[in-house]
Every structure is written in C-alpha cells, then in structure tokens.
Amino acid sequence: MRRTFRQLASVKPARYLEAGTPTGLTGLRTHISPRSTLLYLYSSTLEKIQAAPAHSLYRQSVEAVTKHRMALVEAVVPPGHAEWAERTRATLAAHPEQFKLVSSETVDGAAAIRVERDGRAFVVRHVPKPKDERVTEWDGEIDEGAELEGTRSLEEKADLKLLSERSELIGEEGVKWEAEPQLTADQVEELENKIGAGLIEEVVEVAEGELRLVDTMLQAKVWETLEEQPAEGQWVYFERKP
C-alpha cells in the first residue's frame, strides 16, 4: 500500500510521480526511471549468473525470481512507449558513432553508452560523481599560489602566443537522448502490488544488491562441495521427540 505522505507530496496533477521528491522512507527519493533501471539490472543479473553451473541451486533460484520480476516489469508499459521506441531506434540508426557498443561500464566523463545485457541493448547515461577536494588524496604537486602579475618572460610570452593562436577542436554535434516515458502513478502502484516488495525504489535497491551479490557468490563457488564436511548432527536442531 502506497504511503499517504508520498501520495500527497509526490503526485503531480497529471498523476505522475515527481522524481526526487520524498517517498515517505528516510533517505529514499522517488526514482526518475524505475522501469528501465529494473530491466537493465535484471538483464545484467541474468547475464552474469550464466557463469554459475546450470545445476547450481543458487543459479536456478536467482534466474527464477529475476525472470518472474522482469516479466512483471515488462508487462507495465508507460503511455507513449511505442512511439518513443520508434524514435529512439531512428536516433540510434542515424548516429551510430554516438552510441558505440561497449562491454565495460568503465567510462571516463559524462556519456551515453550503448551496452548489451542478456541479449538486450540499453543506452546507459553515465554521469561521473563530483569529486570532493577535501577527501582527495594529495598527488604531490606543490601549490605555487595564484598566477603572477606583471611583465612576462620570453618563454611565457611564447606560450601565450601559441595559446591565442590555438583553435578549438569542434567534434560532431552531440545527440540529445530522449528519456523513456514515465510510468503513471497508478502504474507504479500496480507494479508495486504485483511484486509485493515495498515501494518501487526499494525494489530497485534490492535489484542492485542482488547484482552485486552475484560476484561474491561466483567467487565463493557456492555450488561446490564443502572442503570440511559438517559433523554428524551438526545441522539437526532441537525438536520435540515422541
């Protein structure tokens, strides 16, 4: 059941949730694009879990839950989605150089990158986090203070001349990517009720945690036999006997 506080504070007159507004849970804000985010996370999980053996109970459980939730998310389509998808396909076809396919999520600077996850293509917006100079490790460079005023040396004058003659490197004009249409407030509530795991923002956080957990479980190889077998009766708990 959606919290009354969120209904009153976050819903626009057109019945759309406003991104960044309070959800009623401390520290949790309304997500800007929960549907596409969940599809990307679920696809990434399904792709990554392929590294585990097919007979692994962990893999079977993760795949079952993830595919079930992905089907629920896919079934809820925002208004205007078909027209948006048509426009975005045209943009990708017209500007392939702007959306190069990459397999790594390590990207320098702000960019819109195209990645494939579990046979699906996604355009992911990468915005680097701002650096806090207060916690940045010192690189050893000495601060020589502000730039000196007055007459320049011959070397400085030569550098300034080169700088003034240098022209800007103007590349191809950037392409503006159109975000996926938003789900209506009623659609979000419908999806929350079907998943049954709290607010849609909580579902996103759980999906992020599940994706990170896959790496840990693969590293631990949880499907293998224990190196040290448990003692007899170790996992037998107290029970009432006749």
Could you characterize what this model shows?
With 242 residues, this protein is mainly α. It has a domain at 4-79 and 179-220. It has 7 helices and 3 strands; from the N terminus they run H-H-H-H-E-E-E-H-H-H. The protein has a 3-stranded mixed sheet with strand order 1-2-3. A hairpin with a 2-residue loop joins strand 2 and strand 3. Helix 2 packs antiparallel against helix 3 (57-75) and helix 2 (34-48) runs parallel beside helix 7. Keywords: Electron transport, Membrane, Mitochondrion, Mitochondrion inner membrane, Respiratory chain, Transport.
Shape, please?
Answer: extended
Distance between the termini: 45 Å
Number of strands: 3
Strand content: 5-15%
Largest sheet, in brief, is: 3 strands, mixed
Structural class by sheet pairing and helices: mainly alpha
Q: Helical region count?
A: 7
Q: Can you give the helix content as a percent range?
A: 40-55%
List keywords for this structure.
mitochondrion, 242 residues, electron transport, 3 strands, transport, ETC complex I subunit conserved region-domain-containing protein, mainly alpha, three-stranded mixed β-sheet, extended, single chain
